[in-house]
Specification:
CATH superfamily: NAD(P)-binding Rossmann-like Domain
Number of domains: 1
Strand content: 5-15%
Distance between the termini: 35 Å
Number of strands: 8
Shape: globular
Order of helices and strands: EHEHEHEHEHHEHHEEH
Number of helices: 9
CATH architecture: 3-Layer(aba) Sandwich
CATH topology: Rossmann fold
Largest sheet: 8 strands, mixed
Length: 307
Amino acid sequence: MNKKILITGANVGIGKDTARQLAMKNETEKIYLACRNETKAIAAKKDLEKKTGRSIFEIIVMDVSDIDSVKTAVLNLPEPIDALIMNAGGLGGKTRDRLTKEGATQIFASNVLGHVVLTDELIKAGKLKNIALFAGSESARGIKKMGLKPPELKTSSTNEFKSIIDGTFFGYKTEALVIYAYVKYIAALWMSAMARKHNHMRFITMSPGSTSGTAVLDDISGFKKFRIKYIMMPFIMPLMGMVHGLEKGAKRFVDGINNKKLKSGVFYGSKLNVLTGPIVDQSEFFTNLRNTTIQDNAYEAVYKFLK
């Protein structure tokens, strides 16, 4: 039973509604809202307390793109948690290609590298008991209706994965959504490798599906943002099974940490050609996801940036 949960990126969107839904369960005793902006976190905490009628929320200041911030947050966490939900991330905005001091791009650091450190530090400190869930994306297996192909690598070697992490893999003006797909692909592979290395715990990658009301689209600029956010998502995509509401997206995370029928090491998301509805194993559509050699190469590449 998951009584105490930590959620990154918990002050807005899917992270915040996940916290709300979890608070409505009687077994939930504590929810840690891990956010980089304390002011926004305080506002979210007050709103969640008002909506749920419960005072079980605590704020942990954490910037997942900053390794030192993550380590400090783990030190300041006063007790072990049962479940970790790694929700923070996004497309990286105008700084997505900027390199961190570790040599990773900002988009990779905020989505993956910080969460890798967070998970490892929690485990080393004995502060994570049951399950870690990572917010995946169907873009990591390709979305044909959106013109996104599955990630295409020549060798899937450690060095090739490193080139994705430091950005040298991509050509000039590669679209943010394409880079995001490769980033989420590496994350899913890392999670599967973690499941094999830590079999006393569960590691689930769960896509929330294409969800309205999230902050991810705010990182898209210009007319494309307007077209997707204000025309396609409200009117066209729901008819195609390509978008659902915030509550349904967040519920996938809630179910993901509580449904023991879900297998550790598996990446769950929508069926092929849709981004909503029942969840299935994404390796059914992209077999590289279940290849343990590829998983280990991605895992090794990630840790090259943490030495």
